[in-house]
Amino acid sequence: MKSTRRDFLTTAATAAGAAAASNLAGAENHEHGHEHSHQVVPSDMALRVKSLESLLVEKGLVERAALDALIDTYEHKVGPRNGARVVARAWFDPAYKELLLTDADKAIAELGYGGTQGEHMVVVENTPAVHNMVVCTLCSCYPWPVLGLPPVWYKSAPYRSRSVIDPRGVLREFGLELPEDVEVRVWDSTAEVRYLVLPQRPAGTETLNEDALAALVTRDSMIGVTKVPDVPQGGTA
């Protein structure tokens, strides 16, 4: 499973290197020797990724060390858990929530997050009367520092078009059925502004600390295609 995730991240980083071949680089994906006896045959996609990576390195378009650095960044320094910490802090601290909704860039930076693809953030709050969801109708603009790499479905043409035309239908496909009296607002991320949904705090979490709250938050709830489920009475995060 770890290898599959790493192959996916290598694919994304290698594509970025090809797009900016004059100044981007990458690194070899090292395998652990103790796993060799249990290693499965790589998939066709994994073999293609490795071949493309090797070709780019050979041509001098990608450096191995930089690719490893990119992979490490998106494995350990950015991703949905960053966004989950932002959401949890907003649920836990009313003053931080107010700042997040009025100056998202400043609030997110207070937790140490920001940078490329995360500039000019806007946070929209879900309430009992309003449900927000995010799309990029033009391409795949996405707040990488707090959500990591965009999921495949977020970049797909059907999601990008149908989220605007039939948002309730799209939400139903994600298993979310909203009452008719709940307004659905669709926000279109662009290169100039990127959106993050602040989900409703679920019931049953009144006694949870900030770390426990963060563990409940999912990537999809911060895009707005799902909700954070309620915690049963007596349950734990």
Characterize the structure shown.
By secondary structure, this protein is mainly α. The chain has two domains: 2-76, no CATH class; 78-223, Nitrile Hydratase, Chain A (Alpha-Beta Complex). Helices cover 47% and strands 9% of the residues. It has twelve helices and four strands; from the N terminus they run ααααααββααααββαα. The chain has helices at 2-19, 44-58, 64-77, 80-92, 94-102, 104-110, 144-147, 152-155, 157-165, 167-173, 210-216, 219-223; strands at residues 121-125, 130-135, 183-188, 194-198. It has a two-stranded parallel ribbon. It has a two-stranded parallel sheet with strand order 2-3. Helix 1 (2-19) packs across helix 3 (64-77), helix 4 (80-92) packs across helix 5 (94-102) and helix 9 (157-165) crosses helix 10. The longest helix has 18 residues, at 2-19. The chain starts with a helix and ends in a 14-residue tail after the last helix.
Unreliable segments of 5+ consecutive residues: 1-5, 16-38
Major β-sheet annotation: 2 strands, parallel
Strand order of the largest sheet: 1-4
Look at the structure and name the CATH superfamily of the largest domain. Nitrile hydratase alpha /Thiocyanate hydrolase gamma
Q: Could you tell me how far the N terminus lies from the C terminus, measured between alpha carbons in angstroms?
A: 24 Å
- Percent in helix: 40-55%
Label the structural class.
Answer: mainly alpha
CATH third-tier fold name of the largest domain: Nitrile Hydratase, Chain A
Chain-averaged pLDDT: 83
| Number of H- or I-type helical stretches | 12
Instruction: Note the run of SSEs as H and E.
Output: HHHHHHEEHHHHEEHH
Shape category: globular
What is the number of independent domains? Answer: 2
* Structure summary, number of beta strands: 4
Q: Mind telling me the CATH class of the largest domain?
A: Alpha Beta
Named CATH architecture of the largest domain = Alpha-Beta Complex
Q: How large is the share of residues in beta strands?
A: 5-15%
User: What Rg is obtained from the alpha carbons, in whole angstroms?
Assistant: 20 Å
